[in-house]
């Protein structure tokens, strides 16, 4: 009996330990590819620059990927996976469908990296490097990123639906969401400053123009002239896909976003609420007056957000849209998003 136990003990350990102790993800580090792909960062920068010259908005669109990737089961490239017959991924989730864009820029970066150093640089790390360059190339801060992430083997539409916040969200909801990731109120406000670049759709603002909180009236915190402008851009019953600027300088990463919030000219409800709510207002005010402080806190927030990891097993994908050995699907699934926002 004792012998049997002794024989079984190693087995018990091999099977039980991994379950009990979550497979600790290897620590991320700057310069992770210094030996295996020394030009990785230069290559990412070059492709990003080309993409942003071709289409200036692509910087914002790619930078947004970091948020949508890292919040759903860690920064693991899961949001880049296409749906398969057995898996509904994140691309058609409520916040991503008809909204996330510039996936082709990540494909271009991946292709360039596969040519230089095959199967070495993860798609998850591409998102982190590309986001940083999108900010830096838009006039924002530059910083050293930690690398060494693996790509996930699956993606979950349901998780993305559950987690990603709606543009209707108020500041207290957002504070609670960010707290789940150990991101502070300061991190929330600083990271929202990413809306200093890029666009949003009418789909994301009509409710606050015509039916804020079901009142049948506009959000009273919108400054009247700005409201007129938004009403013209987004008439009731108009095309929800028309886009507007998230701040007054949408190609420049600066603190204009916070000045706009102070003036009641935030585009999204989730933006303006950061100024109207007492717990977040002081940060908005401070960043509107001190761009350097905004940059510093923004970089801190990006690094913290980039540290989110699920600890699940991963791989280095060859193609960011499919797991290795998987088949890309030609047909695109349909998903109707029924009156999610109005
Ligand atoms: C705090 C909660 C947040 C909410 C509720 C939110 C929501 C949104 C919405 C609704 C849009 C416009 C989408 C559309 O209308 O199609 C948008 C755009 C954008 N978001 Fe956020 N966001 C948040 C935080 C963040 C964070 C943390 C980042 C990055 C660090 C980010 C980066 C961006 C960028 C760059 C755009 C513009 C994208 C483009 O022009 O294609 N957002 N966000
Ligand atoms: C924020 O929104 C949540 C969810 O819609 C709601 O329960 C809560 O009362 C709101 N909080 C404030 C301070 O408006
Ligand atoms: C406004 O919102 C309320 C509550 O969600 C809803 O019952 C009502 O039908 C909406 N009105 C319009 C015009 O969409
Ligand atoms: C926006 O465009 C998408 C894709 O082109 C389309 O499927 C969707 O119905 C449009 N949405 C609205 C609200 O017009």
From TrEMBL:
Positions that bind substrate: 165
Keyword field: Calcium, Disulfide bond, Glycoprotein, Heme, Hydrogen peroxide, Iron, Metal-binding, Oxidoreductase, Peroxidase, Secreted, Signal
Catalyzed reaction equations: 2 a phenolic donor + H2O2 = 2 a phenolic radical donor + 2 H2O
Disulphide bonds in the chain: 37-117, 70-75, 123-320, 202-234
InterPro entries in UniProt: Haem_peroxidase (IPR002016), Haem_peroxidase_sf (IPR010255), Peroxidase_pln (IPR000823), Peroxidases_heam-ligand_BS (IPR019793), Secretory_peroxidase (IPR033905)
Subcellular location: Secreted
Bilayer-spanning residue ranges: none
Xref: PROSITE patterns: PEROXIDASE_1, PEROXIDASE_4
Record: residues binding Ca(2+) 1: 69, 72, 74, 76, 78, 90
GO biological process terms, semicolon-separated: hydrogen peroxide catabolic process; response to oxidative stress
Primary enzyme class: oxidoreductase
Binding site for Ca(2+) 2: 247, 249, 254
Plant heme peroxidase family profile domain ranges (all copies): 27-324
Classification via PANTHER family: PEROXIDASE 17, PEROXIDASE 72-RELATED
Name the record gives this protein: Peroxidase
Native organism: Deinandra increscens subsp. villosa
């Amino acid at each position: 009996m004792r012998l049997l136990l002794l024989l079984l003990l190693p087995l018990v350990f091999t099977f039980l330990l991994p379950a009990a102790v979550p497979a600790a993800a290897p620590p991320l580090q700057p310069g992770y590819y210094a030996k295996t792909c020394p030009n990785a960062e230069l290559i990412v920068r070059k492709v990003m620059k080309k993409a942003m010259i071709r289409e200036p908005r692509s910087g914002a669109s790619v930078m947004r990927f970091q948020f949508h990737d890292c919040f759903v089961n860690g920064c693991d490239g899961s949001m880049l996976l296409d749906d398969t017959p057995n898996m509904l991924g994140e691309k058609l989730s409520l916040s991503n469908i008809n909204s996330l864009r510039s996936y082709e820029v990540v494909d271009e970066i991946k292709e360039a990296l596969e040519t230089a150093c095959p199967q070495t640089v993860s798609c998850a790390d591409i998102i982190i490097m590309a986001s940083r360059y999108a900010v830096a190339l838009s006039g924002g801060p530059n910083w050293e990123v930690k690398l060494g992430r693996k790509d996930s083997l699956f993606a979950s539409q349901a998780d993305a639906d559950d987690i990603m916040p709606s543009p209707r969200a108020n500041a207290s909801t957002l504070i609670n969401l960010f707290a789940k990731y150990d991101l502070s109120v300061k991190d929330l406000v600083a990271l929202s400053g990413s809306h200093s670049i890029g666009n949003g759709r009418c789909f994301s603002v009509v409710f606050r123009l015509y039916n804020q909180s079901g009142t049948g009236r506009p959000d009273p915190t919108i400054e009247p002239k700005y409201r007129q402008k938004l009403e013209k851009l987004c008439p009731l019953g108009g095309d929800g896909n028309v886009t507007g600027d998230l701040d007054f300088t949408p190609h420049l990463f600066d603190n204009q976003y916070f000045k706009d919030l102070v003036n009641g000219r935030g585009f999204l409800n989730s933006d303006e609420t950061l100024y109207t709510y007492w717990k977040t207002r002081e940060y908005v005010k401070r960043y509107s007056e001190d761009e350097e402080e905004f940059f510093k806190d923004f970089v801190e927030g990006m690094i913290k957000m980039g540290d989110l990891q699920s600890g699940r097993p991963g791989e280095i994908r060859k193609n960011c849209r499919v797991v290795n050995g998987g088949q890309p699907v030609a047909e695109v699934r349909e998903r109707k998003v029924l009156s999610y926002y109005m």
